[in-house]
Amino acid sequence: MTEYLIRRSLQSVLVLFLISILTFAMIHAAPGGPTQVLLAPGLSPEAAKIQAHNLGLDRSVPVQFLSWIGGMLQGDLGHTFKNNIPVGDILWPTVGHTMVLMIAAWLLSLIIAIPWGIYNSTREYGLSDQTSSFISYLGFAMPTFWFGIILQQYFALKRDWLPLSDMYDMDKQGNFGNLLLHLVLPVTVLSLGFLAAYVKYSRSSMLEVLNQDYIRTARAKGLTERKVVFRHALRNALIPIITILGLDLPILVGGAALTERVFNWPGMGRLFVDMAVAREYSVLMSITLVVSVFVVIGNLLADILYAVVDPRVQYGRGGGTAA
Amino acid sequence: MAEKILEIRNLTTGFLTDGGMVKATDRVSLDIEKGKTLCVVGESGSGKSVTALSVMRLIEYAGGMITEGEARFDKQDLVQKSQLDMLNIRGSRIAMIFQDPMSALNPVFTVGEQIAESLRTHKRLSKKEAWRQSVDMLRRVRIPDPEIRARQYPHEMSGGMCQRVVIAMALACNPELLIADEPTSALDVTVQAQILELLLQLKQEFRMSMLLITHDMGVAAEVADRITVMYAGAVVEEGTAADIFERPRHPYTIGLLQSIPGLEGERGGELYTIRGAIPPLSNIPPGCRFHPRCLYAMDLCRTNEPPLRRSLSGHMAACWLDDTGAEDPRPGNPNNRETKVTIGNRPEVTFP
Amino acid sequence: MSDAKVLPPIPEENRYEPREKRAKARTVEARPEGPWKTGAKKFMRNPFAVAGLVLLLIFIGIALLAHWLAPYPPNKLDLMFPNLPAGSSGHLLGTDELGRDVFSRLLYSSRISLTVGFSVAFVSVIVGTLIGAISGYFGGWVDTIAMRIVDVMYSVPSLFLNILILAIFGAKASYMIWVLAFTSWMGVARLVRGNYLQLREMQYVEAAKAIGVSDWRIIFVHLLRNSSAPIIVTATLMVGGAILSESALSYLSLGIQPPSTSWGLMLSNAQASMLTDPMQALYPGLCILIVVLAVNFVGDGIRDALDPRKTTIPQRRLDQWRKRFSKSGI
Fold it and tell me: Where are the transmembrane segments (chain A) (predicted)?
């Protein structure tokens, strides 16, 4: 197990290193090179030269990469170009805000979706199953941001039941009840997407398991249907769902970014979009890396959890996949 | 006549497909005497497994259902029982083992847990007692180091070992009837013999009756008291092992026997095969269902279905060419062809 | 065992079968209709799939004929009549904040969405298949490198990567197809790789190699044909995903730029004038929803049609059938 953990962690570090190269290379592949991209527009050639020197842009590319990565590892995310604010100062608070939104939506949808999917797998094509597949189709085909806009128009503008946007009212910063009110709409929007996916996964995973030979064996033993489903099928069905939860993380984070933008939620996603429009590349690079770290850690945790629940996983070899 | 543990009469099992209802078994009748072994043989797709699953009433979980007939086990018709009542029979009075032992065991539980579960369900044992008996069961299926093995997961064991575990699980509650569906087909040849030997020994030890399904005539020769030959969902011949191997009466059985390499045939000769292939269940030919593949097919075979007719010795076959049934000297013998010919519908078989 | 004792001699006409006759009989027997034909039949029996296909064809028709169908040019300003409600004279769905006809703009927008959707799916399926096939077939270090790249691409949320690239290189409609394809080929690559890993162990690959068929021919002729079904399904479902991504990027004003128009861009405008004209946000979103729904229905329909285990029997019929014929207790 320890060996597996170490190997799997090293793999994650490698992936992160490659991502940092990718991000860095992208800036340097931009038309006109990094100087063009990174410097504030409208500078005189002399001033540009000085600023380029200050930013270290006149060094060779590998040296620049190493110093950037070195700074990153020490928690120095660089400065914004326009106002020279440390990137960390604007980035870190948004990470927390995004986490609040994502975790709320994620937990809510998991709690609803997994029991629902399991229930549906035992009553295929029943009313509940048809409802959930209708929701799934909607969830997969609907632009999340559009759903957000529609909800805003009805619940905030037309009815004034819920706040239109932001995380708190201006005069109620830090008030928990106020936060909950503000969470309702964005969490609904985000959950719909997650829900659509998870009901489908848990249902199909469960159906797959219910068709296995060992379920027939369990029935041949004379076990009640309840025991067959909850004892024998459920544990096996949850195993692949764990992997999917890990693999889906990037999509979820992406969805959160759009939702944040619609509801003006002060999270990483909104910051990213704002900074993309403002062309603040050091912030963009930092956010890309931070998000990737989250995703890679999420995948790592999912893999470890998988190895814990599935006795078939051989820690020593085989890259952590089931036999 | 010995007491019968299982009597299946006219059991018909259907599946609904895109092309309409398909009969996976068509009026199958068979008997198992107490303490005896009945082998059901036939190619894959002949309805052997469906018959077994129907008796267990597991067929409903596989998408099929029983449309006709009865299966009397200890005087009670299993077909009429509710699934709830079946829970008390499955695993405790009738047990079943399946073809692929590796996939028949739940990968996330240790083998000990899986055997103990059976005991706890039917015998209401304490956890500790169930575990003790599980280890004991593993010992009785000749697994070395049963205490250690009981704590292992199925994927840590070989196929033969898994099949022993499956057998231990099936026999844990001392069933009266064991249904074994191709118990050795997924195993290596050397292991096959061991498992078969084990099954025969355990049958004596536990004083069970056995319904063994196989496509392998060699297996049937080794273990069977009686043999039922099925083809395309119906019984075509039934008799003692000696009847089937020494006096086969149906051309299909003869074909099956001739296709065993090296059993009786001349060495160096061409390996015998029955021409053609088993028809899909959605497209059973009219008349005798074997006629398109039968070397002896006559015009009658193409239109009329032959009845299953019984000779005095109890050997039955469904073939128009076979006139052994007419040897019965008693007047008005219902099995005489003249009185028994019914067109289009398979006559009921009467048992004395 | 002497069958002669029990059975009469084999009738003359059955005795000898010339080899040609046997072969002929066998081919007739062993020729059920192919999987594609069965699939097509099953597809046509699936009402959702057919409805999806019809809707999709309608939208393709609209995109092709937008020039003739639209009552106004998409960018014709009419600053006198901004934000007209739906049903106003001459404007079926009203006008936007600049007085442009919403209905006409919706029709024209379908061009961008469908073009982007199908091109992205096309490019990423080709790239993904190529990479997946090569890495699955050859294995070894080629496979290791390819799969590390896939891991990396999977670890950055594709929306973030899209935004980053478009922010650096500038938002242009023509870039967008490449950018979206760049971040969506990995799924196909993994799928194809998995398929090829299994397929390359097959006997017929060894047989083909033994008679001197080149690796490339095996990869792109023999094996590709055998994994085409899942590729087609993924490609179809990818169209919907690409349409959604396009709308998201355009909504963030990093995608389609004015004067071109797309549903995402219309939504972006609509949110800006949300207070004055709430209905404007409804139509473009509905269009996206319907098109993506249609594509997904088609994709799911193809998947089910090519899945031999899936039947097209509705549950209701199955229940009725059980009630009518089942003799067993409940």
Answer: 90-114, 134-156, 176-199, 237-263, 283-309
Query: Mean of the pLDDT values across residues C118-126?
Result: 94
Whole-number pLDDT of residue B8: 92
Q: Select from B106, B152, B185, B213 the residue whose CB has the most chain A CBs within 10 Å, as the one to mutate to test that interface.
A: B106
ipTM value for the complex = 0.84
Q: Looking at residue C75, what is its pLDDT?
A: 73
Question: Which pLDDT band, with edges at 50, 70 and 90, does C5 fall under?
Answer: very low
Mean pLDDT, residues A213-231 taken together: 91
pLDDT of residue C311: 65
Q: In the predicted model, what is the mean pLDDT of residues C124-134?
A: 93
Mean pLDDT of C307-322: 72
Best CA proximity match to B253, nearest among B279, B221, B230, B276? B230
The pLDDT, as a whole number, for residue C1 is 40
* Residue B241 clears pLDDT 80, i.e. is over it: yes
Is residue B48 within 8 Å of B213, Cβ to Cβ? yes
Three-class HEC string of chain C: CCHHHHCCCCCHHHHCCCHHHHHHHHHHHCCCCCHHHHHHHHHHHCHHHHHHHHHHHHHHHHHHHHHHHCCCCCCCCCCCCCCCCCCECCECCCECCCCCEHHHHHHHHHHHHHHHHHHHHHHHHHHHHHHHHHHHHHCHHHHHHHHHHHHHHHHCCHHHHHHHHHHHHCCCHHHHHHHHHHCCCHHHHHHHHHHHHHHCCCHHHHHHHHCCCCHHHHHHHHHHHHCHHHHHHHHHHHHHHHHHHHHHHHHCCCCCCCCCCCHHHHHHHHHHCCCCCHHHHHHHHHHHHHHHHHHHHHHHHHHHHHCCCCCCCCHHHHHHHHHHHCCCCC
Q: Tell me: pLDDT of A13 over 60.
A: yes
CB atoms C8 and B80 under 8 Å: no
Q: What is the domain partition of chain C in residue ranges?
A: 60-307
Q: What is the pLDDT of residues B250-260, one digit of tens each?
A: 889 988 888 77
Preceding peptide of B248 cis, ω within 30°: no
Domain boundaries, chain B: 107-170, 263-351
pLDDT grade for A197, boundaries at 50, 70 and 90: confident
Quote the minimal CA–CA distance from A214 to chain B in Å: 4
Work out the mean pLDDT of chain C and round it to a whole number.
81
Interface test with A, best of B108, B109, B169 (most A CBs within 10 A): B108
Q: Hey, which CATH number is domain C60-307, 3.10.290.10, 1.10.3720.10, 3.40.30.10, 2.40.420.20?
A: 1.10.3720.10
Asked if C327 reaches chain B (Cβ–Cβ under 8 Å), the answer is yes
State residue A45's pLDDT score.
72
A117: helix, coil or strand?
helix
Domain A87-322 belongs to what topology?
MetI-like fold (1.10.3720)
Of A216, A309, A311, the CB nearest to B98: A216
Residues in chain B closer than 8 A to C312 (CB atoms): 18
CB-based contact B321 C7, cutoff 8 Å: yes
Interchain CB contact of B68 with C (< 8 Å): yes
Residue A283 sits at the vertex; the CA angle it makes with A302 and A75, to the nearest 5 degrees, is 65
3-state secondary structure at position B324:
helix
Partner C contacted by B341 (CB < 8 A):
no
**B202-218: per-residue pLDDT in tens?**
999 999 999 999 988 88
C23-30 long-range Cβ contacts below 8 angstroms, 24+ apart:
C25/B276, C26/B276, C29/B276, C29/B277, C30/B277
C156 has a chain A CB within 8 A of its CB = yes
Q: Which chain A residues are closer than 8 Å to B95 by Cβ?
A: 220
